[in-house]
Specification:
By secondary structure, this protein is an alpha+beta fold. Helix content is 23%, strand content 38%.
Length: 124
């Protein structure tokens, strides 16, 4: 599993929590899919070395669904609170990208500019 920056997805928020003291990080995103349904995804990773493409890293992916009455700004606010509580508990550095509904192509461009981002481009 991964975060797919498809052109027909629209991204509202992306979080990265780097927790070097625990050799872990957390990545999360809120987006709408091609049907306009609000979705969330997050990944935890236990780091096994300096290579970001190290297949020995232990990763766990999770998907989130939201009540239909929830709006993207409401979900982003709740996710921001959740990631803030996680950071307050375990420490580390939290980065947040307010993507404001950018399509997958534009969102990927913003993400690729981040020092913590490791992006692979694959043909569809």
């Amino acid at each position: 599993m991964t975060i797919e920056f498809r052109h027909d997805y629209h991204f509202y928020g992306l979080w990265f929590l780097d927790i070097p003291a625990m050799q872990r990080d957390v990545l999360a995103a809120v987006y709408t899919d091609e049907l306009g349904e609000l979705r969330g995804i997050y990944r935890t990773r236990e780091i096994q070395g300096d290579d970001p493409w190290n297949n020995a890293d232990e990763k766990h992916w999770f998907t989130l669904g939201f009540p239909t009455e929830e709006t993207a700004p409401q979900v982003v606010k709740k996710m921001q609170q959740l990631m803030g509580m996680l950071q307050a508990t375990v420490g580390g550095e939290l980065s947040f990208l307010d993507l404001q509904g950018k399509d997958g192509t534009e969102a990927a461009r913003v993400v690729m500019q981040q020092p913590w981002a490791h992006v692979k481009v694959e043909d569809a």
